[in-house]
Specification:
- By secondary structure, the chain is mainly alpha-helical.
- The chain has one domain: Transferase(Phosphotransferase) domain 1 (Transferase(Phosphotransferase), domain 1, Orthogonal Bundle).
- The protein is 60% helix and 6% strand.
- It contains 4 helices and 2 strands, in the order αββααα.
- It has a two-stranded antiparallel sheet with strand order 1-2.
- Helix 2 runs antiparallel to helix 3.
- The longest helix is centred in the last third of the chain and has 18 residues.
- The protein is elongated, with a radius of gyration of 16 Å.
- It starts with a helix and ends with a helix.
- This is Protein kinase domain-containing protein.
- Keywords: Transferase.
- InterPro entries: Kinase-like_dom_sf, LRR_receptor-like_kinase, Prot_kinase_dom.
Length: 100
């Protein structure tokens, strides 16, 4: 089971550091981890990440914004930190459930 978490860590490394623009998954949870026939873990459900990325860049491009728009931009800011935190939660889940 620990191998699956390592697979997910490699996938997040690719999304965060090796793509032309970093991709933040934004919703990493057990149901968004898929396994193939060899039990290799894969990250799925990147639809929300693309949506948030597009909204963030659109909102950030607006230079003449009101206070409410500034708050919206702050809410839409995403970073890789949330994905790393979620990976830690997955690791704790594996440790607690499977004892690895």
């Amino acid at each position: 089971m620990l191998d699956i978490v390592i697979d997910i860590a490699h996938a997040l490394d690719y999304l965060h550091n090796r793509c032309e623009q970093p991709i933040v998954q934004c919703d990493l949870k057990p149901s968004n981890v898929l396994l193939d026939s060899e039990l290799t873990g894969h990250v799925s459900d990147l639809g929300l990440a693309r949506f948030l990325s597009k909204l963030t860049s659109t909102a950030s491009a607006n230079q003449s914004s009101s206070g409410a728009e500034d708050q919206l931009v702050m809410l839409l800011q995403v970073s890789t930190n949330g994905d790393v935190y979620s990976l830690g939660i997955l690791l704790l889940l594996v440790r607690n459930v499977y004892g690895e």
